[in-house]
Amino acid sequence: MNRIPRLLAAPTCAAAAVALSVLIAGCSDGPERDSETGELVEATEVNVFDLRVGDCLDGFADDTEISTVRAMQCSEEHTDEIMAAIDLSAEDEFPGAETVQERAEEDCHEQFERFVGVPWDESQLDFGFLAPTEQSWADGDREILCTVGDPNQAVTGTLRDADR
Question: What Å distances lie between residue 121 and 61, 72, 99, 107, CA to CA?
Answer without folding.
Answer: 23, 28, 23, 15
